């Protein structure tokens, strides 16, 4: 990819469409950090199966594709790059902790054996969506196909295993980045959002039809507040127009999930409100929370970039634990801890 090693983002820059910047109101300074409260066996479920993108991927994405396998990713946990798009743990890890289990093995690491796969399996690949994006990795439909093969062909899990499991489904916006990169228009965006939600609903139903009783799907985070959008305001203001589009996505998803719950009669589907969790954190923490910890030294570089001589072209903040965002689009381990804390009460609804 030339000099720059491209970080696989959860979505590409939408500034070409959304150029109205609005600020977040209600910031308050606070040095207080929420503590992680691990609820052992919090859901009474023994396994987790994970589908989606970089917000949930714990190491499936190819090393040649992503900077997440290069320093400084993983410096907090596990102490070296391991494919997570963070300095440490991500949403998958925190949800597994809530369940009282270890983070499930990656699909790529499934050959480690039945014992290693006892907590479920992670099929998520960074950069992917419900449709094919610009990243040459399996989209959500293909990930579910992998799941079906593992169950039916390999016999790694029984029907009872599947019935006592939780599915985490992450959809963080890559489909929209690909839409604009391929020439999508502002006028066509509502129709495309509808198509994304329709496909997501089909995927959720497919997972449920496999026998999974509880399915948690993420609402879209406030994309207008991600550092790659707020950099134009020196990380001071969110892009209100981008967040308006996000709200349409989340509204349609709420309607789709309600319909699925009505059809299945068992309230299997639950939304993890990342939008609300991100925004509530922004409002309670100090100014500067929108600034990422790891940034490229120049516009053409990003976190993890090196030049042709191998010299790093990025800087890392002194204390990653004090930053909500790790890079241009992904939360830090501390950021995910805040999000998890905000979501914790609603997790019991599962």
Q: How would you describe this structure to a colleague?
A:
Strands 2-3-1-4-5-6 form a six-stranded parallel sheet, with helices on both faces. A two-stranded antiparallel ribbon has the order 7-8. The protein has helices at 91-99, 140-152, 159-163, 174-181, 189-209, 227-230, 240-264, 274-284, 333-347, and strands spanning 47-51, 105-106, 120-122, 165-169, 214-218, 269-272, 294-296, 314-316. It contains nine helices and eight strands. Helix 1 crosses helix 9 (333-347), helix 5 packs parallel to helix 7 (240-264) and helix 8 (274-284) packs across helix 9. By secondary structure, it is an alpha/beta fold. Helices cover 32% and strands 9% of the residues.
Summarize the structure.
With 350 residues, the protein is of the alpha/beta class. It is built from 9 helices and 8 strands.
Notable traits:
350 residues; alpha/beta; six-stranded parallel beta sheet; two-stranded antiparallel sheet; 9 helices; globular; disordered N terminus
Number of strands: 8
Apparent shape:
globular
Strand content: 5-15%
- Structure class: alpha/beta
Radius of gyration: 19 Å
The whole-number mean of residue pLDDT values reads 87
Biggest sheet features? 6 strands, parallel
Q: How large is the count of helical segments?
A: 9
Report helical residue fraction. Answer: 25-40%
Low-pLDDT sequence parts: 1-41
Question: What is the first-to-last residue Cα distance?
Answer: 43 Å
- Helices and strands, in order, run as EHEEHHEHHEHHEHEEH
Widest β-sheet, arrangement of strands: 2-3-1-4-5-6
